[in-house]
């Protein structure tokens, strides 16, 4: 090992050890906040004026994010806070089984949410590029979303069977606590049952759950941006020919949703791509295995924070989402007092009031109809 590698390793060790002391106390409140924001997102996107194919996918993403956050909330509370500073030794058999369950359910649910985001990008591109040829409804989305779940679960099977609970003589695992003649037994996670199966599992996680989704998101985000630019130029030409034409609101809505998707893509690249590259590197050279594991807490906090960042994007980019959230969270007397009632005429997409007047007929006013819109 050369001096540069040694310095990098020492730096990472110091960072990992220092951050481990505060990781539990940082991640525990973040998971609570993330669970609450994900539940709010699911409730809002399930309302009538939000029931579109795009928003249905975002509901699925929020649902699987909630599973990850809920599991990590329990894990961080028990192992990092209640059992600090020696969280991973001398646990009961139940909590060791929970640690294995948490690891598997976390990777599974997070990977499903990530592939649902890819599905969103693909469907957005398909709808925008071929609006007259493609029709996507809620049934199609539900079938595709749960097909993704099935495929991810099947790919995770090697990981599910790789680890089990094993008992150790306490003096072997905790020599500083127990004497050599102690008969105490402690439980922890067994070493991988099959090295070949472990390599398969790592390659699946690296390629299928880290690198591939990032590449797909980048490709379709770029295609969406190019498509929106072409659509904008085409509409500008049409508007010049027909001065009465006004379609800027639709274009702005498409741009807003596409911008949000691009921001989610950038966030995903930052979180997932380094993990995928390091997993591939450690499969090639085992020395990178150490670097991957000492950064484990850092990977966790970035993945967990991404769901909360997505909620912030929803709030910052959609006035309708903000107003629905205010109505959901605040009591009605506060909404009335501060005049925060949703102005449906200005926020929701509507069919304009039309006055139809014939020679011998009275004035007819059509009632506005709310049409569900993307977030």
Verbal overview:
This protein is mainly α and 375 residues long. It has a single domain, classed as Up-down Bundle (Rhopdopsin 7-helix transmembrane proteins), CATH 1.20.1070. It has helices at 3-45, 53-82, 93-129, 138-155, 157-160, 170-173, 195-241, 248-284, 287-294, 296-317, 319-329, 332-337, 344-347; strands at residues 165-169, 185-189, 349-350, 355-356, 364-365, 370-371. The strands form 3 sheets. A two-stranded antiparallel sheet has the order 1-2. A two-stranded antiparallel sheet has the order 3-6. The protein has a two-stranded antiparallel sheet with strand order 4-5. The radius of gyration is 26 Å and the shape is globular. The chain crosses the membrane at residues 26-45, 57-81, 101-123, 143-166, 204-231, 260-278, 290-315. This is G-protein coupled receptors family 1 profile domain-containing protein. Keywords: Membrane, Transmembrane, Transmembrane helix. Residues 36-314 form the G-protein coupled receptors family 1 profile domain. It comes from Adineta steineri.
Q: TL;DR?
A:
By secondary structure, the chain is mainly alpha-helical.
């Amino acid at each position: 090992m050369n001096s540069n590698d040694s310095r990098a390793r020492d730096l990472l060790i110091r960072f990992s050890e220092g951050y481990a002391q505060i990781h539990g106390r940082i991640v525990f409140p973040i998971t609570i906040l993330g669970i609450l924001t994900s539940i709010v997102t699911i409730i809002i996107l399930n309302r009538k004026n939000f029931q579109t194919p795009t928003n249905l996918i975002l509901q699925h993403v929020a649902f699987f994010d909630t599973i990850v956050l809920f599991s990590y909330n329990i894990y961080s509370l028990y192992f990092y806070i209640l059992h600090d500073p020696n969280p991973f030794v001398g646990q009961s058999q139940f909590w060791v089984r929970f640690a294995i369950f948490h690891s598997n359910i976390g990777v599974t649910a997070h990977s499903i949410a990530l592939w649902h985001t890819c599905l969103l990008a693909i469907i957005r591109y398909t709808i925008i590029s071929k609006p007259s040829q493609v029709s996507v409804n809620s049934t199609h989305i539900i079938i595709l979303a749960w097909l993704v779940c099935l495929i991810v679960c099947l790919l995770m099977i090697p990981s599910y069977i790789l680890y089990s609970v094993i008992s150790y003589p306490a003096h072997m695992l905790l020599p500083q606590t127990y004497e050599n003649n102690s008969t105490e037994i402690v439980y922890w996670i067994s070493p991988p049952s099959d090295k070949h199966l472990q390599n398969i599992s790592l390659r699946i996680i690296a390629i299928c759950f880290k690198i591939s989704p990032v590449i797909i998101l980048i490709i379709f985000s770029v295609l969406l941006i190019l498509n929106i630019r072409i659509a904008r130029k085409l509409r500008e030409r049409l508007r010049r020919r027909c001065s009465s034409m006004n379609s800027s609101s639709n274009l702005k809505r498409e741009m807003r949703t596409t911008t949000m998707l691009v921001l989610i893509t950038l966030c995903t690249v930052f979180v997932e791509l380094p993990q995928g590259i390091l997993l591939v590197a450690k499969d090639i050279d085992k020395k990178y295995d150490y670097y991957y594991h000492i950064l484990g807490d850092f990977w966790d906090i970035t993945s967990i924070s991404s769901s909360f960042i997505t909620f912030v994007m929803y709030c910052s980019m959609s006035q309708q989402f903000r107003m629905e959230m205010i109505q959901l969270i605040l009591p009605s007397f506060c909404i009335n007092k501060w005049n925060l009632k949703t102005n449906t005429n200005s926020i929701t997409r509507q069919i304009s009031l039309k006055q139809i007047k014939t020679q011998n007929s009275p004035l007819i006013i059509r009632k506005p109809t709310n049409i569900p819109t993307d977030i």
